[in-house]
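Extended Data, panel c. Modelled sequence:
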Amino acid sequence: MTETLTATLTDRPLKALGLSLALAGGLGLSALQTAPALAQESEENSRLDTYNQLQLFGNVFKRIKEDYVEDVSDEELIEFAIQGMLSQLDPHSSYLDADSFRDMRVQTRGEFGGLGIEVTMENGFVKVVTPIDDTPAARAGIMAGDYITHLDGEAVLGLSLQDAVERMRGEIGSDIILTISRDGEEATFDVTVNRDVIKVRSVRHRTEGDIGYVRISAFNEQTTPGLEKAVEELRAELGDDMKGLVLDLRLNPGGLLTEAISVSDAFLDQGEIVSTRGRDNANAQRFNARDGDLIDGLPMVVLINGGSASASEIVAGALQDHRRAVIMGTQSFGKGSVQTIIPLLGHGAMRLTTSRYYTPSGRSIQAEGISPDIIVEPARVETIDISGGRREADLRGALENKGGTNGEEDDQTAANAEDQRPTDYQLDRALDLIQGVSLFQVSQAGN
């Protein structure tokens, strides 16, 4: 109220406020007495400004209807206006027409049509957040961080993200040519992608020796059941020999908040998982873990990178803050906002950013991301022979190993092991860490 009063007194003569110059000595009292009137006047001015802006919109709408070179329906113009209004708020708020809304609901169920890429808009171009595993885009070689500059030869610059996404959709089996700008490449290049029905298997698993490996590629309605089944199968295969678990969230663009909470809860016994806060603190929400850990406290490493966003960051942040897992890899994407899908009866829906989310320690990772506990950049490992190519067996007169093999079998075993060795450097480091923690725990138990 003080700020409003000060601005009003500065902008208007005192007589306009019904005050006399003779009352200057009692200005404070007189000003307080007129505060309700000033507030009412301010509210009326605000309503008048809104009316004027709506009148401006009506005038523009009328002029387009009368003078635009082509006929445009009222429904199209209203949708364009809504799209513009929402898209200017932030990169994640948007209008979904009936078709897009239907596609979104199908996607959250784990099946949808398209190319199989998660995208955002940056500097006027479509930026690939991540290609989804086993989709046309992934098979065509589209990579996280790629910029799409043209669609079938038409420039993306000037399109909204929604427009670009709509153009990338199409008849199943049809091709689209994406012009790609990639860091490290001197020139753009074209990639042809065949549209298909995208069936997302959001959870995959395998064993890495005596360590379980689970990859979650997206958070949809099938994620938690898929995770529970994966861990059950891993434990059945490894039994008591299971030393730990690697949870791979790299290139996971996110998805449903409820699934992020559920996956975090699967490895936590208690405590807060995440909180969300919007403009009104009265609507803040906190989500807490329930008793039960799928792997009963075994060592755990979570892998993240720049393609890990939103729901992935909720899981990584919760497990990091509770010291339940070691976070390894590179800085995550940094999408710390929550979007609410609000259906519009007969007109699709709007996706509106309604709150920010916070990790259990109170961190907002919006535009910052999750910092790994151990930074491991992607790398290619090469074997270096430091022996100079000479071994004991190569020396003249060396004694034979009569109690073992002649060395050829050992060499072949080593060669086979090298051929089967994983080429994923970040995963290798995660496996090494779990092995080290497991050995340490055994030695401590022995003492």
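The longest helix spans residues 27-67. This feature is highlighted in the accompanying rendering.
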